[in-house]
Write a structure and sequence with these properties.
This protein is 38% helix and 18% strand. It has 18 helices and 22 strands. The protein is elongated.
Length: 597
């Protein structure tokens, strides 16, 4: 297999293929790239980051008794299978052996570079399985069809024997966004979408009583875990007996497997150009209009009682007096004259209110395309730092779950600002490391902070400052370096044992999906279980001795993989016998997915 890339995803993917699946891999990287492990992203560390490093060392020296952190992922050596080249040209791909390779992954950060190399590789080897990293999803669908058609034209389908999904277009942002969004929410699920199916998992302290059909996907580390023994680590896909003996260990439970009903929960959240009617006028203005309407009604009733005319006629005369259209009530009873004066006074009060309503309505229409500011009474929301390609995908996921969000972005040219404007999400422009920016995002009333900027130090500094303002705040950090993420996780957990702290690496979350696609598997998504990853994949039963001929209930290997659903048969019972041609959705560890290969 050949992996071409210019960032940490290429190195993580190579380690995944060699360390987990035992594949022979040739890594193509730019000259001078560090292949020993993922580097730190962002500017050099500031003095505050250096101080934090000393805190980390002190916490590690004390043993960090309050933290339960699995050992870091070992770094794999890439041996001599590293080819340095500035770009994946035809000569470079030929030297890497693409003409005889089983799969090629193009994971450069630039979409155009990946597309150009994919077209070249398809010409060199029509049989090679291509995996492309593209941010543009619509373009990715067309490119996938184009490359498969090119392979079919190079030779007949029967001669080539092309595997299902010979070209796969993935996005690291789309793969990691569901896990990042779910981690920021208390009690909310990790969600993986597939064709017409939604898999939803939540973290629970204990299994609910009398709730049949729930499936435990993982047992988390015990709250008092202090060593690295096997029984203190998270247990993936436990057996029923292990679940019964889990004691006080929290668990991740499959709460819902249901058919998708089309639009998600956030489908109507201000997606149009015209704002909703309620947003045209402020609450104070609406109360003013309601008060004046009540005064007009009271005057009409009083006029009907004083003059004895029909209520509709009294209401009509009141409106005429209100707008100074009626004749003066000369020679009429005193009560009628007093009511006319009161109606005129009410009309004077109505004029500025109507003018304010017009100005507010026009202002709302004028600024509907501008960035919104956080409302005064906002609370219980998620503060999202960074609207790059990862932050944009996370924002969309949070709005699909109908979660209130306030975004913070340093520059006005970020790609996610257009999405935030379309979703009518409040945005604060400013440097998150500057005092007052997080306060403008109402961080003191927020439920969670999700820091997904491209700089580790920025995410860390913002998290530390947010914790000083809100000690119980739930914090989720996107950190590039695994060792640094482990140290941050351990120290923040020790310093704030009552608050939730999570650190996530996008390359760590997305590499299993890319590796599965290179092996011909349809990986639907992944979500983290502490520092491990649980994968959801769609597999065809044909040719799998552990699946074909077994019932859905028996298609379960504790600790490795478990069948969750049968595609195309939502009403299948546990006694359904899997047969050739069926396709199932499985939850598996990375090694378990390799065994199912």
């Amino acid at each position: 297999m050949v992996v071409c890339g210019d960032d940490g995803l290429a190195r993580r993917l190579t380690a995944e293929l060699r360390g987990v699946y035992g594949e022979q891999v040739v890594l193509v990287v730019p000259p001078g790239a560090d292949t020993a492990g993922p580097p730190m992203v962002g500017p050099p560390r500031s003095a505050s980051a250096a101080l934090f490093d000393r805190m980390v060392n002190a916490a590690v020296g004390r043993g960090a008794a309050n933290a339960a952190v699995p050992p870091p992922v070992p770094q794999h050596s890439y041996g001599e299978h590293v080819l340095e080249a500035p770009a994946a040209t035809e000569a470079v791909l030929a030297e890497a052996g693409v003409d005889r390779a089983a799969a090629l992954a193009l994971v450069y950060e630039d979409d155009e570079t990946n597309i150009r190399a994919a077209l070249t590789a398809r010409r060199l080897n029509p049989r090679v399985r291509l995996v492309l990293r593209l941010y543009n999803r619509r373009l990715g669908q067309h490119i996938e069809e184009l490359l498969d058609q090119a392979a079919a034209l190079a030779a007949g389908d029967d001669e080539l024997g092309l595997p299902d999904g010979s070209t796969s277009v993935l996005s690291d942002a789309d793969t990691a966004a569901p896990a990042l969004a779910a981690t920021a929410l208390t009690g909310t699920s990790r969600v993986v979408h597939t064709d017409g199916l939604m898999l939803r998992a939540v973290e629970r302290a204990a299994p609910p009583e009398g709730a049949p059909g729930l499936c435990t996907l993982a047992l988390l580390s015990p709250p008092d875990a202090a060593d690295g023994s096997a029984d203190q680590r998270p247990r993936m896909l436990p057996s029923d007996e292990e679940v019964r003996q889990a004691g006080n260990r929290s668990r991740i439970v499959l709460e819902q497997v249901s058919a998708s009903a089309g639009q998600t929960a956030g489908a109507g959240l201000g997606m149009g150009v015209v704002p909703p009617l309620a947003s045209l006028f402020s609450p104070r203005l609406r109360w003013s209009l309601a008060g004046l309407a009540a005064c007009v009604l009271a005057l009409a009733v009083a006029l009907a009682l004083v003059t004895g005319i029909h209520p509709l006629g009294a209401f009509y005369l009141t409106l005429l007096d209100l707008f100074a259209i009626d004749e003066p009530a000369l020679g009429q009873p005193l009560g009628r004259q007093i009511l006319q004066l009161l109606s005129g006074l009410t009309g004077l009060l109505l004029l500025p209110v109507l003018l304010a309503a017009v100005l507010e309505g026009l202002g709302t229409f004028r600024t509907v395309g501008a960035l919104r500011k956080p409302p005064r009474g906002l609370g219980g929301h998620v503060v999202l730092l960074g609207l790059g390609k990862i932050g944009t995908r996370v924002l969309v996921r949070l709005r699909e779950l109908d979660i209130p969000v306030v975004c913070v972005e340093s520059g006005p040219e970020a790609r996610g600002l257009a999405v935030a404007r379309r979703l009518r999400v409040p945005v604060v422009l400013g440097d998150v490391t500057q005092e007052g920016v997080l306060e403008s995002a109402k961080i003191h009333r927020a439920s969670a902070l999700l820091a997904v900027t491209s700089a580790d130090t920025t995410n860390l500094e913002a998290a530390l400052y947010a914790r000083s303002l809100h000690p119980e705040l739930r914090v989720v950090l996107r950190l590039y370096d695994d060792d640094f993420a482990t140290a941050v996780y351990r120290t923040l957990r020790a310093a704030h044992p009552q608050a939730t702290t999570r650190s996530r690496s996008v390359t760590y979350l997305s590499a299993p999906a890319f590796a599965g696609a290179m092996l011909g598997r349809r990986v639907l998504g992944a979500f983290p279980v502490e520092r491990r990853v649980l994968l959801f994949a769609s597999l065809e039963v044909t040719g799998h001795p552990d699946l074909e001929g077994r019932t859905l209930a028996d298609a379960f290997h504790p600790g490795t993989w478990r069948v969750l659903a049968l595609e195309g048969h939502p009403d299948a019972t546990p006694d359904y016998v899997l047969r050739k041609g069926d396709r199932v959705v499985v939850a598996a560890t990375r090694r378990g997915l390799a065994e199912l290969g």
